[in-house]
Amino acid sequence: MTVLSKLFGAALTGGLACGAAPALASDYWEYQDWSVAVEDRITEEHDWRDCSAWTGGDGDPIVRLEVTQDDIGPPESYPQLHYREIAPRGYPTHVVHGQAIGFIIDNQAVFYAIADGDINDEGLAEVSALARWNDALNLIRWMQAGTTLDVHIVRPYDGGETALRASLAGFTAAYGKMMDACGFSLELRELEIDYN
User: Fold this and answer.
1) DSSP string covering 57-104, please?
2) Which end of the chain has fewer CB atoms within 10 angstroms, the N or the C?
3) pLDDT tens digits along 164-183
4) Quick check: 72 and 183 in contact, CB under 8 A?
């Protein structure tokens, strides 16, 4: 089963479970080690276009960025890097609720997050962590210039351990496709605020 068919299946199943299914259209691309998906959700009330870029999966944790067309975007707000891990039934996640993690680029820069864990609707242990919103721009810049992203469990008493090592090959192209597909600028710049 392809990733695209999994996306369609999950979206359609979710829509049918809620009653009337929204009209769906999806596109999918791969850029070396990164994937991009664009999903249009059309309902009677509103139309959405969700764009995401990710790496990992197939039993490994996932790191992803997501944007929605017509939301506030750059330079006011950049997508935050999101880590997600789902454990097999009956097993705990590697990263635990409340655990500090670091997103480390090429062992040169680190950006922190706190894990939020719970049991999902399917009864599986799940944990996610979102990089701080004020680090989003610099994290994207480092990812574009880097080669490796490590998600590292922070434990001061023993140095911690790596929960995921991800290649950044293809990240810049995937980020560009995601942002362009949802109508956002690819320019990476800080918001200039005039306090006078």
Assistant:
1) -TTS-EEEEEEETTS--TTT--PPPEEEEEPPTT---SS-TT-EEEEE
2) C
3) 999 999 999 999 999 999 99
4) no
**Percent of the chain at pLDDT exceeding 90:** 68
- Exposed, middle or buried, 15 (CB in 10 Å: 0-12/13-18/19+)? middle
Structure tokens given for 17: 């479970």
Extract the tokens encoding 40: 């249009």
- What pTM was computed for the model? 0.81
Domains and CATH numbers, the chain: 3-181 (2.60.40.1880)
Contacting residues for 96 by C-beta, under 8 A, at least 6 apart: 115, 117, 127
CA–CA separation, 7 and 184 (whole Å): 23
Classify the phi-psi angles of 141: left when phi > 0, otherwise alpha if psi is within -120 to 50, otherwise beta: alpha
